[in-house]
Amino acid sequence: MTTSIHLTALDGIVNVNSLFTLAVFLGLTWNPRDPSNSLIGDSACFPDPHVGEDMIAFHVYSFSSFLFSSLIALGLKQAIRLAKTSDWDSQSHFLGLVNKGLLRVGMLVSAVGSVSGCVFLMLALINLVQIKLGTLSCESGNGHSVAAIVPLVILVPAALLIYICLVLFSFFKS
User: Fold this and answer.
1) What is the pLDDT of residues 31-71, one digit of tens each?
2) Assuming Cys at both sites, which of 61, 95, 98, 145 could form a disulfide with 120, CB separation 3.0 to 4.6 Å?
3) Whole-number Å distance between alpha carbons of 69 and 15
4) How far apart are the first and last CA of the chain?
5) What is the pLDDT of residues 57-66, one digit of tens each?
């Protein structure tokens, strides 16, 4: 039972990371320096070039974090599958082949990679909003930048907090 739960959790991590990695690649295909992509009306609201550079850097950091997390999860899945021999008949035999403590730590490390990838992706999206709609500090704008970012900085950290609590709960209870 525990083995299938671990495999399902690892599959979930890999699947979610794959979706986010797709989002990262879509973000990297967009050219932040193309003026036709901007919806900024006031020239005073244009962001510094550093905002575009930060957006690209955060996309790369996010991709690296998701790739790290996925590779750890896939490695753990492979270790579980290799430990499952045709003659194992009980949980104790499984635990003799795969160290449960290392499995738990590996899953925790994979979750940390996913969380850091989400944080970097959120930061990249904040920079994307500033490039498309104007800087957050622009007073002459109509507030679309702030309105677009507020749900992002509320909902993503809230979801990450719930995810972190559940991962830590499962880490200490399993």
Assistant:
1) 666 666 666 666 777 888 898 899 989 999 999 999 999 99
2) 61
3) 11
4) 12
5) 999 999 999 9
Place of tokens 């622009």: 138
Return left, alpha or beta for 159; rule: phi > 0 is left, psi -120 to 50 is alpha, else beta.
alpha
Tokens of 104: 């738990």
Helices 100-133 & 49-83 angle (0-180, nearest 10)? 160
Residue-wise pLDDT for 94-106, tens only, equals: 445 677 788 889 9
Cα–Cα distance, 168 to 113 (Å, whole number) = 14
149: amino acid identity, one letter? I
Report the C-alpha gap between 132 and 119 in whole angstroms. 20
Structure tokens at 165: 């609590």
The candidate with the shortest Cα–Cα distance to 20, out of 165, 160, 139, 143, is: 160
- Kind plus residue range of the DSSP H or E element containing 44: none
